[in-house]
Design goal:
Largest sheet: 4 strands, mixed
Bound molecules: NADP nicotinamide-adenine-dinucleotide phosphate
Number of strands: 10
Distance between the termini: 23 Å
Order of helices and strands: EEHEHEEHEHEEEE
Number of helices: 4
CATH superfamily: Dihydrofolate Reductase, subunit A
């Protein structure tokens, strides 16, 4: 997830320009094309909520031909062969349908689906990139999870443009 420092993952007006940092942090590392390509190549499939899917269609499809599973109770249709719509009990979908076929499953978001994953203990790792901005309004990532979840910090990377990537292992409780 990409988040503002005050915990928002989307603005109310839907604009995304805030996700591109204009800051400079001399001591940071360069976010290279190779880094991004290698990172994306490690993903076996994506899972996302229908709102995130619809927003991705508007912004320009970034997932190529990698399988994408969209959670929805609506009867949505797609002309992309890589897209499949699913509904049902999340625990069953993950353990019976996806974990048996895919190793590295990337839960893209949004906030609603992420919170369900965290509440159900379905996520192993949390990867969040903080943009140096306070948005003040929008969709909050972790509001009222209603559950305490211990985390183990696995990695931190500060980039030259002021973005900070935090990788946490999620403790099971
Ligand atoms: N900053 C980031 O890194 C980042 C990442 C991802 C998304 N986003 C942003 O987050 C916003 C969307 O987030 P959101 O929280 O509003 O929505 P969301 O989580 O993307 O989608 C919510 C929808 O997913 C479906 N859903 C959720 N749980 C389900 C279940 N167990 N079974 C079946 N369907 C289920 C429902 O769809 P139906 O109503 O169709 O049934 C629900 O309305 C967008 O603006 C997007 O751009 C930001």
């Amino acid at each position: 997830m990409v988040s503002s420092l005050d915990g928002f993952i989307a603005k109310k007006d839907g604009s995304v320009s805030w996700m591109h940092s204009k800051d400079t942090y001399e001591k940071g590392v360069e976010l290279t094309k190779e880094y991004v390509v290698e990172f994306l190549a490690s993903i076996d499939c994506y899972v996302m909520g229908s709102k995130t899917y619809e927003r991705a269609l508007e912004l320009g499809w970034p997932y190529g031909d990698v399988p994408v599973f969209v959670l929805t109770k609506r009867n949505l249709k797609s002309d992309k062969e890589s897209v499949q719509f699913i509904a049902g009990e999340l625990n069953e979908i993950m353990t019976k349908q996806l974990r048996t076929r895919f190793q590295n499953i990337w839960m893209v978001g949004g906030a609603m689906l992420t919170k369900e994953f965290l509440r159900l203990g379905l996520a192993d790792e949390l990867n969040i990139t903080i943009i140096p901005i306070l948005l003040g309004d929008g969709t909050l990532f972790f509001d009222y999870l209603g559950k305490e979840i211990p985390l183990h910090l696995k990695d931190v990377t500060a980039f030259k443009d002021g973005m900070v990537e935090l990788v946490y292992e999620i403790g099971k409780k």
